[in-house]
Write a structure and sequence with these properties.
The chain contains 11 helices and 9 strands. By secondary structure, it is α+β, with helices and mostly antiparallel strands. α5 packs across α9. GO terms for molecular function: transferase activity.
């Protein structure tokens, strides 16, 4: 295990911020968030203000992964939109400061829910929080990418063709065992891809409840976090990612809604959430939603395979959790095939 992912050179960070961040005054107190498998994330406390530092992990990395510079850019661009994000302060591209690129943003206080069941929340508030999640998602996909300067944030062309190609390469680069279901899923996602309908929006790439901060007292979202996988692409990928998460087992491990009595808990059905999304965006409905769902299971399998590989190589942010997550790769692959079969 590399200690570099767990610790931070506090003196180097403090000196850099004193020189580059207006209003910064130490002393600095640093602690690491245990969430965030990909880019190590630290809370920086000062007497007057709290910040968050997100860095690339050290070591040899997969090409295009851990793009903290893209995270910084997209959140900065969204500052004056209906999508709530933390305030961005600095991007440091000089690896010599702490050993890898990093950025500084405001720390956003509030509530973070690790699972949709939200055990300590009332049924009415649960429903309102999930509705707010849907509102923010629709707002994200309605952002005018030209107006906010993000029209070049992703390449042109068919998003699903591009993404299936990218994640197939990344999966194969980090493959540790032969998984027949994953092989079949990759082949079918190429063969069964729908015609491009022309939708081209900003997409988050990992839109989940646990990547959102909500107000401490209300059901308003204060910030969407973890933009590493964001790009210009197809909005149905984000929507399907939400539904994908909900189909997983309930609890802190699966973080889904599998087996829950949603009505009793105040939680919507998949169909109701999708219908509300379509209404907010003025869409008539979505054909072949199973493809988008299958794609999301495939991509998540690819992501956790990468986490597993970093765990085996000794440079994961949380090595023990990396190994546990790796057990789910075949499960996600089978879920993807099941979604394609349902159509």
């Amino acid at each position: 295990m590399s200690a570099d992912t767990q610790t931070l050179d506090e003196a180097a960070v403090s000196a850099y911020l004193e020189k580059n961040l207006p209003g910064f005054e130490g002393p600095l107190e640093v602690s690491k968030f245990q969430t965030g498998q990909s880019n190590p994330t630290f809370l920086l406390k000062t007497p007057a203000h709290n910040y968050v530092l997100r860095r690339k992990p050290p070591g040899v990395l997969l090409k295009s992964a851990h793009a903290v510079d893209r995270e910084f850019r997209v959140q900065k661009a969204l500052a004056d939109t209906d999508v709530p994000v933390a305030k961005m302060h600095l991007l440091c591209e000089d690896d010599d400061v702490i050993g890898s690129m990093f950025y500084i943003m405001d720390h956003v206080p509030g509530r973070n829910f690790n699972e949709p069941a939200m055990p300590d929340v009332s049924p009415a508030d649960r429903g309102a929080i999930i509705d707010e999640m849907g509102r923010v998602l629709a707002a994200l996909h309605d952002v005018d990418i030209d107006a906010v300067g993000l029209s070049d944030y992703g390449p042109p062309g068919n998003y699903f063709e591009r993404q299936v190609g990218r994640w197939t390469k990344q999966y194969k680069a980090s493959e540790t065992q032969n998984i027949p279901a994953m092989n079949e899923l990759m082949e079918r996602l190429v063969a069964e891809r729908p015609e491009d309908d022309g939708q081209r929006t900003l997409v988050h790439g990992d839109y989940r409840l646990d990547n959102m901060i909500f107000d401490a007292k209300t059901t308003d979202c204060r910030a969407v976090l973890d933009w590493e996988l964001s790009t210009i692409g197809h909005p149905f990928a984000d929507l399907a990612a939400v539904i994908m998460q909900w189909q997983l087992p309930a609890g802190t491990e699966g973080r889904g809604m599998g087996g829950l009595d949603r009505a009793a808990l105040g939680l919507p059905t998949d169909e109701a959430f999708v219908a509300q999304y379509c209404e907010r965006r003025g869409l008539p409905g979505i054909d072949n939603f199973g493809y988008y769902l299958g794609f999301c299971f495939f991509r998540m399998a690819g992501i956790i395979q990468g986490v597993l590989k970093r765990g085996l190589d000794g440079n994961a942010s949380n090595p023990e959790r990396a190994m546990k997550l790796g057990e789910f790769v075949p499960v996600f692959a089978q879920h993807g095939l099941d979604a394609l079969n349902r159509g």
